[in-house]
Amino acid sequence: MNLPAPLRFRLVAAGTHAAVSALIAGAVALITLGLWYPGAIGDMAGGRQLFLLVLSVDVVMGPLLTLVVFDRRKPRTELVRDLTIIAVLQLAALAYGLHTVYIARPVALVYEGGRFRLVTANDVREEELPNAPQAYRTLPLNGPLVLGTRETTASERVETIDLALKGFDKGQRPTFWRPYTESRAAALADAKTVDELMQRYPRRRAELEDRLREMNLAASQARYLPVVARRDWVVILNERGDVAGYAPFDGFL
Q1: How many Å apart are CA 161 and CA 166, to the nearest integer?
Q2: Which residue, 110, 143, 169, 206, has fewest beta-carbon neighbours within 10 Å?
Q3: Alpha-carbon dihedral sign for residues 33, 34, 40, 42
């Protein structure tokens, strides 16, 4: 099919723009998803879907605008101006999207008594960061820290209840963050056997067995605890109480 020359040039320009946009998006995705949303954590946080939405909108937006405005019959200065404006708009949209994904990135998986909580950067009560142990005063960029929490003192109880009512549980407050090793015994004591989980939900047995094989764990050795996150998952612990991995469990919590 012979297309009119102006339309053909527009399609070539839009296709070239789409290819360049896809290459940039791929590089950004590779770095960002590998650092901010690694492995199962990215699925648990729900951030990967947000990130892919941001990239897909950005990749589509620029080439479509190029298809609309590109016309070789325009004066060169006008065409360059139009394409520059599109590039600026596309980069601004990408920067805004990346900022949104950045502040939603997981920064800590915190045991807070009977459960874990996946804490994102915008969940943290940042004014308490100076009160955290030195190693936890800066929010990480390469996946969440695995942390425990200390007990609430008598003098902190009223404030703790008040802040919990405002949406800040212990896991979101750096004041209470401690190395997970200090909470490991408590987590193991609270955890239930994966065998029990399989008996309660036999339709999930095969999936759970596959997950355990990936972790080199037998069902009799593995324990689990629920995790508060944007999607329903469980944390799998080994016989020592260390975090061995994760399993999706929609509808369990």
Answers
A1: 9
A2: 206
A3: negative
CA distances 171 to 35, 54, 91, Å, are: 22, 29, 35
Please give the Cα distance from 108 to 145 (Å, whole number): 4
How far apart (Å, rounded) are the C-alpha atoms in residues 162 and 10?
Answer: 60
Q: What is the pTM of this model?
A: 0.83
**Could you tell me the two tokens for 224?**
């689990």
The two structure tokens encoding residue 251: 């509808």
**For residue 119, what are the β-bridge partners?**
108
How does pLDDT run along the chain (253 residues), one tens digit per residue? 566 766 777 788 888 888 888 888 888 888 788 888 888 888 888 777 777 777 777 777 888 888 888 888 888 888 889 889 988 988 888 888 888 888 889 999 999 989 999 999 999 999 999 999 999 999 998 889 999 999 999 999 999 999 988 889 999 999 999 999 999 999 999 999 998 888 888 888 888 888 899 999 988 889 999 999 888 899 999 999 999 999 887 654 4
Distance, in Å, from the CA atom of 236 to the CA atom of 151, rounded to the nearest integer, reads 23
Q: Quote the CA–CA distance of 181 and 247 in Å, as a whole number.
A: 22
